[in-house]
Amino acid sequence: MAVLRITWTSADKVSVATGEITPGEGDEDAAEVKAPRADKPMLVWIQHPSDDEANEKVAKITLDPDKLRVGCSFFTCIKMTAEAASADRLLADTGKKYPRMVLITPDYDVVKVIEGKISSSKLYAAMKRTASKSYKCNFDKNVKGVIKLLGEFDKIENERDALTKKEDKGVKPAEAKKIAKAREELDDREKEANEQRDEFLKPELKTA
Description:
The chain has two domains: 2-134, Glutaredoxin; 140-201. It has six helices and five strands; from the N terminus they run ββααβαββααα. The protein has helices at 52-62, 66-71, 82-86, 120-134, 139-168, 173-201; strands spanning 8-10, 42-46, 76-80, 100-104, 110-115.
């Protein structure tokens, strides 16, 4: 399902969005202006500049568990090269090792840095910590709620398939009515599950 696919955005800069505006010449009384908050916290993956195997391990092992995949839906996920990160004022001093994960709030505060060996458990813990500073919801509860719903979607699909197979074999009118009613009930279950999923995946940000 789409929620299990991590959407990565490649970027050359992250700090550009912090938008600290320096007063112009002769404008000494001008106040510093901050850019709008981001709409989500950020998970920045600074990739190893030369070790493709290390990068592949992060993609295929570290980020593989469902809770990591679902958890990433709560973040804007950004991939950066080591060179770009070293030139970014927000990321330049976050470490020396690669690959590196940097977790940032919507207000562009760095919460946690994990570098070198990145385990799924350490990354998820960092995501929980960053989410707690960013959202009003219980991140872990929401993630687990979505994963539980994925099981419900699978059950609904399996039950639909079973009804279709029964129809294909040929059924009497009375049985056809029962199947039609069962399909309606499955539609209602799916609608309710979709609403719950959307509620879990669209938490409210904390006030700045």
